[in-house]
């Protein structure tokens, strides 16, 4: 009988842990969303993974986004450098507003 109470106590502690960390609320809301779905998905597990944010494609998407970010940062830096060059070239052909006012 003591073994039964010890395992019951561990279960209760684990349940409180899940409740405190918000796991029970999250799982409940995902299961309610699945229940309320008018067109039930063919794969309920994929539905749950998707709504929990644990789909397997995310790490690939994250890596693709990191690569895209690095590429765009490089392009940005090149464009900023080109912009600076063009401004310098423009200054050679156009007088500054201060010089134009002095004449």
What does this structure look like?
The chain is mainly α. It has two domains: 1-56, no CATH class; 58-95. It is built from five helices and no strands. It has helices at 2-20, 23-36, 44-52, 58-93, 97-102.
- N-to-C terminal Cα separation, in Å? 104 Å
Helix content: over 70%
- Class derived from helix and strand content: mainly alpha
Supply the number of structural domains.
2
Helix and strand run: HHHHH
Treating each run of at least 4 consecutive H or I residues as one helix, how many helices? 5
Number of strands: 0
- Beta-strand fraction estimate: under 5%
Using only C-alpha atoms, the radius of gyration works out to 30 Å
C-alpha geometry: elongated
Summarize the main sheet: none
Overall pLDDT confidence: 85
Low-confidence stretches: none
Reconstruct the topology from this structure.
Blueprint: H1 2-20, H2 23-36, H3 44-52, H4 58-93, H5 97-102
Helix pairs in contact: 2-3
Family: Belongs to the AMY1 family.
Keywords: Coiled coil, Nucleus
InterPro entries: AMY1
List the main descriptive attributes of the protein structure presented here.
coiled coil; 5 helices; AMY1; nucleus; 2 domains; 103 residues; elongated; c-Myc-binding protein-like; mainly alpha
